[in-house]
Amino acid sequence: MNVMFTRKRVTVGALLVCCGLAVVFTTIGAASSTGSAQAAKLVSTEEELRQVQERVSQLKSEIADVEAVAPEVAAEVKTLEERIETLKNQRVNAAFERDAVLAEVVYINRLKSELLSEITAAEALRALRLQALESIEKSSKENAEIAEAILSELKKKYAEADALYQNNVSELARLNGLITEANVKLDTIDGQVTAAQTALASARKRITNAETKQRELETKKTNLKREIEKLEAREQQLKTEVMSLESQAGVSHEDPRSTIKILDDVIWKLDPRDVLKKFPR
């Protein structure tokens, strides 16, 4: 009887140990599973944190690039505005010069018209002289003295008309030269005005493009700053999560003696009567 009782006690003890070990290993397995999940989450969180930090660094670099380009754009805008003012002044000056040349052309044309009238009058006097000579040839001797007097007067008039004619022809040639020069000058000024207008339009277009680029850069800079703020907030959140996960991972890696203590507690908490019920005599 004592032998059987002893055997039963040994069996019960073994069962208690087995049950305790099963509970402990189950607990350890669960803890290990939880620790593995936490470790995986920690790795994932650290990777996301690294990506966020890289993105923040990239965005800050882009902002630096934008800030580096902005002064260049502003300088270009200023240069173009100065160029526009210069072109406007050139255009105004060329217009004034053109008006002056046009006034000179009008004056020269008026002188030319007057000279043409004088030349016409001189040619009329020459024609009158020829008529007088013909008349003298046809007249009788009685009228010779009168004809000679008329002829003398006509010669005098002719000489004056001829001199005036020659002077007028020379002056007319000079005026024609002045008109040609004035027209060439006008063409040059017109070319300058056209070039100034073209350059002005081009400068205005470039300044519009530069201002548009400047606005786009400012918008991009603002958007980048907003994204950085969001990422920095996410970075802080991830750092907090990493600290929490590292803390939790540290608990799951305690001294092995804590596992023995758990095993001991589990074994002593088991009621032997519950085990004996499963093994009746």
Short description:
The chain is mainly α.
At the first level of CATH, the class is: Mainly Alpha
The span between the termini is: 12 Å
CATH architecture: Orthogonal Bundle
Strand content: under 5%
Number of strands: 0
Query: Structural class from helices and strands?
Result: mainly alpha
Mean pLDDT: 70
How many domains would you count in the coordinates? 1
Number of helices: 4
List keywords for this structure.
mainly alpha, 281 residues
Description:
The chain is mainly alpha-helical and 281 residues long. It is built from four helices and no strands. Helix 1 (2-138) runs antiparallel to helix 2 (144-251) and helix 1 crosses helix 3 (256-269). It is rod-shaped, with a radius of gyration of 59 Å. Mean pLDDT is 70; it is low at 1-5 and 251-257.
